[in-house]
Amino acid sequence: AAVKSLWISVASGECLGYLGVNGAGKTTTLKVLGGDLLPSSGTARVVGKDVMKAQVAVRRNLGYCPQFDALITELTAREHLTLFAQIKGVPRGEVKKYVSELIACLCLQQYADRPCGTYSGGNKRKLSLGLALIGAPRVLLLDEPTSGVDPSSKRFLWKLIGNTMKNRAVILTTHSMEEAAALSSRIAVMADGELQALGTASHLRATHGDSYELYVVTQDAEKLQEGPGDSRPENGARISQPVGRSDAQTAEAQESQIAQQVLPEQAQRERDAAPPPAHTLAQSQDQGPSSHHATAPSPSLAPGVSLEQRVVNWLYARYPGIQMTDCLGRHLSFKIPRQTGRLADLFRDLSRHKEELMLTEYSLSDTSLEQVFLTLSGGSARSESE
């Protein structure tokens, strides 16, 4: 994808997490910095050198781990590292020792003299990262270095990358929010070739997170030996929007429940178009916007309704703007708008009504980095899927 109007810098000792959906322009940026692509306009500099005018000097200070392993399957890891060490200018008398130390650092001793075509995906990524580290480059470009790697190898690569960042500027592209949070000092989010946001993980959550995430688990209705009318719906498939709508609205909500689980965006548009529950509307008209914490219908006032549905009804009545994002049996997830109140106040409110709602556990957290990423790249992600 074309990269448009990108202004960004990475200092020595910093790791920039470079995020975006497929086609956002991440790999294009790295190819421009590496000299594989020439910019049609603008200037890109590596250690102060223009990539168009001083490619030899740029590549001498650059290490690049491509998205897909660029390995010669017939060569061993030792042969790869020896070849690259000679190309990168490691003194001839030091190459053998240098390569042996790097093999040990990569934990590839057992496979060092086997053709790399026989390696697992994790060992191939280790070798690709090792090739990028040869010659102590001042700038490291890592294009999804842990893609397709098992959790154990992924943790090893994270540790290796973290240990190499001290005197280097690192640009790391990834689809893993956990990886970005673990390694990056700053995070940049790209969409359609343009920079959407730049900052620390906490800054992005505070700036672009518009809601809290609530997760609750209700008590087991069967263990409570409730009557037939209170039986729990299987897999949450029959959980509907809050009671209080007209019959037509209730029927419409029930018809869209499957879409709500599979296509949450479409379900949200349907929910936004429908009028709010009657009791919520009455509260907002009679008591004003700040009174939604004052009263809420008790779950016990709705006989014949499952525990999960009672919780949904109570939450929708108490917190205007709340959205149910997931439902699986007794496990329910919601988004609560930030303007509803402070996190501490919401915790206090839920703690006070935990027994009334028959909850076994609940958690309330700030917007996750993954949700921020989805929000910032949402338009691009939708167009890609379409």
UniProtKB/TrEMBL annotation:
Annotated compartments: Membrane
Main location: membrane
PROSITE patterns attached to this UniProt entry: ABC_TRANSPORTER_1, ABC_TRANSPORTER_2
SUPFAM superfamilies attached to this UniProt entry: P-loop containing nucleoside triphosphate hydrolases
Record's compositionally biased regions (Low complexity): 289-303
Assigned keywords, A-Z: ATP-binding, Membrane, Nucleotide-binding, Transmembrane, Transmembrane helix, Transport
InterPro entries: AAA+_ATPase, ABC_transporter-like_ATP-bd, ABC_transporter-like_CS, ABCA, P-loop_NTPase, R2_ABCA1-4-like
A Pfam family recorded for this sequence: ABC_tran
Keyword Transferase set for record: no
Biased composition (Polar residues): 247-260
Residue ranges, annotated region (Disordered): 222-303
Assigned GO CC terms: membrane
Entry annotated with the keyword Kinase: no
The family this protein is said to belong to: Belongs to the ABC transporter superfamily. ABCA family.
Start and end residues of each ABC transporter domain: 1-217
Upper lineage: Eukaryota, Sar, Alveolata, Colpodellida, Chromeraceae
Molecular function, one GO term: ABC-type transporter activity
Origin: domain of life: Eukaryota
Designated name of the protein: ABC transporter domain-containing protein
Basic and acidic residues biased stretches: 222-235
Bilayer topology annotation: Multi-pass membrane protein
